[in-house]
Amino acid sequence: MSINESEAEIVEGPPEELIRWTGFLLNWVAAHAHEAYEQVVAQVGLKPQHLGVLIQIQQGPMIQARLSDRLKVFKPVMVTLVNELEAMGLAERRPHAGDRRAVEVHILPAGLDKVREVERLSDQASADFFSPLDSTEQQTLHGLLTKLAKDGPAGPWQGLR
Amino acid sequence: MSINESEAEIVEGPPEELIRWTGFLLNWVAAHAHEAYEQVVAQVGLKPQHLGVLIQIQQGPMIQARLSDRLKVFKPVMVTLVNELEAMGLAERRPHAGDRRAVEVHILPAGLDKVREVERLSDQASADFFSPLDSTEQQTLHGLLTKLAKDGPAGPWQGLR
DNA sequence: TATTGTTATACTCTATAACTATA
DNA sequence: TATAGTTATAGAGTATAACAATA
């Protein structure tokens, strides 16, 4: 048995050398938040993309091409996603009156239930995730991230997409 | 290539419906930060993983198996990465005295130069990215993220890995 | 028997191409 | 000519299997 140092890393924190960089910390924390979210979605038997579709059509039907645009996935991927949602009885395709090429994707009652359930579970997961911060700190974090999200792409990389 | 209808969405901000959720914001901002970092690394002709290896061996050589562990990539991936680093003249394999199965991966002068260059470029990119925040706000953000990174995995998802 | 490095292989995701039927 | 949906295919990226050499 090789008693290397790899035994001590059962519970892993961020690498000590890198935590001084805010950019690294940002990615590290976000990765773990996303992991927690994926866990929640998987708990109800879905992938994040399924939920993305359900949320989009929650208020009303949408044609597939539009769903592809909104979720930024390619058309063949959307075909598969909608197929799977139909197979699970969470959504269904209906012909689009006025344009016989297009199909509308409608949410079904079971789909609405799933959305509600995920919202409930992810609210809980979110509360747990941010629990190391008190209420004021959470608001501060939200404010800082909002600033970065809104004013951020005004930086030098704006021309890159 | 398809010339799509999306004329109005040239500069994209985060989806309005989702910015209330801190978890979403966190991921959105982090994704853009990571994108900026990838741009920087690509600028010097590397992928993030290449740089990960170079940084690990910056202080001294390391055997491949250990590099696989540290960077959490599978062994065949590390073989490819080291092959590429050798082809670029940034690192080289040397036999490991005492264990003839293992090879040490050493950084070369050109590799050190690359690391320095990326550090310089990414410091600049980081400064640009966080420029919407003043110095105090940046420190606050760093503190909040540190709290989440250190105390975060004490939450209910700690058992998941 | 376990570990190191390697090759070969499989699987998943993402991205294009090609085709039909409409418009 | 362009768009909507579908099928088929190509390509990265990730993960596993199997192997020879060594411990």
Structural features, described:
The structure is a homodimer of 161-residue chains. Chain A is built from 6 helices and 3 strands, in the order ααβααββαα. Chain A is mostly helical. Chain A has a domain at 44-122: Arc Repressor Mutant, subunit A, CATH 1.10.10.10. In chain A, strands 1-3-2 form a 3-stranded antiparallel sheet. In chain A, strand 2 (91-95) and strand 3 form a beta hairpin. The termini of chain A are far apart. Chains A and B meet through helix 1, helix 5 and helix 6 of A and helix 1, helix 5 and helix 6 of B. Chain B binds a DNA duplex (23 and 23 nucleotides) through residues 1-3, 5, 63-65, 73-79, 96, 99-103.
Short account of what is shown:
The structure is a homodimer of 161-residue chains. With 161 residues, chain A is mostly helical. In chain A, strand 2 and strand 3 (103-107) form a beta hairpin.
